[in-house]
Design a protein that fits this description.
By secondary structure, the protein is of the alpha+beta class. The protein contains eight helices and 18 strands. The structure holds 2-OXO-4-methylpentanoic acid. 2-OXO-4-methylpentanoic acid (COI) binds next to loops.
Amino acid sequence: MEIRFEPRQVLKKKPQGPLGFGKYYTDYMFMCDWDADQGGFHDARIIPFGPIELDPATMVLHYAQETFEGLKAYRTADNKIQLFRPEKNAKRFANSNERLSMPQVPEEFFVQAIRELVKVEKDWVPQNEGESLYIRPFMFASESAVGVHPAVSYKFMIILSPVGAYYPQGMAPVKIWVEDDYIRAAPGGTGFTKCGGNYAGSLKAQEKAEEKGYTQVLWLDGVHKKYVEEVGSMNVMFLIDNEVWTAPIDGTVLPGVTRDSILHLLSDWGYTIREEHLAIDDLMAAAQDGRLQEAWGTGTAAVISPIGELYYKGTATQINDFKTGELTQKLYDTLTGIQWGKLEDPYHWTQVVE
Ligand code: COI
């Protein structure tokens, strides 16, 4: 599809110093409309970044028909800019939209829009170690109506934000609160999608965890509150007796692109992978008797995040003496090495934008 470009008069000043996560936005954004009565997607454009006007009856504000994605552009040592597996995000976005009765963005169009916007904004891709350009595609119901039905109009947008580490502590162990009251997802629900509603429903438990001094929540399954699922902004993996455990992708867990990449690496390195339901009682017992060797989260924003402590029902247990484990470090180094072009990419996961 042709994407029109509308230049702005004055470019913003680039941020100096630490970027944090999601604090700064670039000069331009991508926007495209979808209207049932205009044959679907039309008027794709890259326009100056700025506020958008919405009618108070816009359906997303009432019924939360909204989905999003997250991926990054990386600057390599030889000054190329590359994306990491954008086609995986395109597929997950399409699956999310299908579940929320929203039109699916064709994979080619999704990747084209990202590539063109990143090309325009190439000077915003940071140079410093550990920094990248976070890409946030999203789509929402833009029809004005208060009756409950799938909207007949949508906006597909992409914004960009230069970022550093997601957690203020960077690549250092985080403390995780195992939530045994609130739930995130249940079979038949939207747990496997990246929709805003999943995150809105998670905030109460997140607040509770933060009040107690924990960084994030580890969710248990919504039916029995017994099996380990995922952490607020990342999938989660455990090294127990030299085997790697992670929840299966069967409807309630987000199919993470980083999760998939890490499982590829681990299986190539000869690890046995147990994509199985792991009971929290078994996990805590393994932590207490020293069989839980390492734990880490995986996510685009979080990258690889070591987990140093788990709190469940009154008991806090440290993992690997609250130190980043050897395997966790090796996974981080290998994944980020491929993403920033410091290591060879035998899997063809990266694609150069420019
Ligand atoms: C990501 O890892 O890209 C996410 O979307 C997680 C979070 C920032 C919502």
